[in-house]
Predict the structure of Rrf2 family transcriptional regulator.
Amino acid sequence: MKISSKGEYALRALIVLGQHQGGVMSIQEISEKTLVTTNYLEQILLQLKKLGYLQSKRGAKGGYMLGKEAKDVNIGEVIRMLEGPLSPMSCASVTQYQSCPLEQGCLLKPLWSLVRDTIAFVLERTTLEDLLENRIQSWKEEDILDFKSKN
């Protein structure tokens, strides 16, 4: 899994809008705070709106605002919706698995599966509110392995 500029900029925009406490911000204002060009940002904001994360308001004082409470914006979900599967390799993907001719007896697949599970574990437990409140926490290896055994 690689987070593209689109995923990074979408998270930046969500943070800026979350810091604006539910108020409306113009694309220009968001662009200035995220350092993303307005043309590219507009595409990202429209996609976030279609996915229900944002709402828009037309007019001279129009712009964008969060469409959900920050506590209800799951970062793992946002990344999956914008970037696709969290797995670094398709043979280890849960949602878009693709077989590989070397898969039988592959010694790398367990590694890719652990990487996928670790990424999913962290992102699925992180909300926009966590980012806004700077509540990113460290997880213990046993928490991640327990998560892996349940999935």
